[in-house]
Amino acid sequence: MQMIDIGKLFSFFMALFLSLSPMGTGNNTEPVEKSTEESETEYIVDVDYDDYYAEDGDYVICSVEAITASLGYLVVPVKLDFEEGKNCAEIFVELLSEYGYTPQDSGTPQSQYYLSAVGGVDAASASVPEALNTFLTDNNIKVTNSAADADYLGEFDLSAASGWMYSVNGETPSVALCDYYPEAGDVIRLQFSLCYGADLAYHEDWGFTYGDLQIADRENATRIVALYGADACGEYVELLSDFSATQDEIDNFSAIPVN
């Protein structure tokens, strides 16, 4: 019986394999081209908030902001479970404590509550943004540009008209923090103001002169960060933390794709 030459048989099959392979007989160093078909990428700022709102309305969105003091967010916008019958003072006392801050206050969260300062803040690093400094000076608001306590940020720090205020869905309620009971889906922002709230939104009817001061609306951005999470929105949060960020920059930010 004739013996089979294993070496020749192996060479034959290797030659056959290479001839059928898309690599051919040479070394293919060119990368495989991906499909040129572009997929539509949805960016955070393109999202319609209403499309992502829970139908059962089981949450509220909260933030604690010291943007006017150049300290950014103390609590980045978060989504909290909605609890019917719980007022805003109760919500923020719990929230601040959860994040390691100490409310300096009077009254109780249920009655005559007043938040005078927040402890655990690097108030020694606080400063008045340049554009805001001009606004305060033009409106005869005394600027001190310093805090009374290096660990607390509160009333009369940085300016003679400073203090903590809150807004709900972009509006300033006419009742104390303890007397406002939010509804499901509300966006509640506790913010440090240097001018009775006139630096948080435009209030020409209050008699303030704004000149060239631009105050960007961060309301929708607050919802977006809370819904997608601070980790996913890191660069966006950094932009929002800058008082000088323009409305165009905030509305057209597209560095973080959703998909």
Keywords:
about 20% strand; four-stranded mixed beta sheet; 7 strands; alpha+beta; three-stranded antiparallel beta sheet; disordered N terminus
Oligomeric assembly: single chain
Note the overall shape: globular
Query: How far is it from the N-terminal to the C-terminal residue, by CA?
Result: 67 Å
Please summarize the sheet with the most strands.
Answer: 4 strands, mixed
Order of helices and strands: HEEHEEHEEEHHH
Poorly predicted tracts of residues: 1-39
Concise summary:
With 259 residues, the chain is of the alpha+beta class. The protein has 6 helices and 7 strands. The chain is 22% helix and 19% strand.
How is this structure best described in words?
This protein is globular. The chain has helices at residues 6-20, 88-98, 130-138, 219-228, 234-240, 247-251, and strands spanning 59-65, 73-81, 102-108, 111-119, 152-154, 163-168, 187-193. The strands form two sheets. It has a four-stranded mixed sheet, sandwiched between helices. A hairpin with a 7-residue loop joins strand 1 (59-65) and strand 2. The model is unreliable at 1-39 (pLDDT under 50). With 259 residues, the protein is α+β, with helices and mostly antiparallel strands. The termini are far apart.
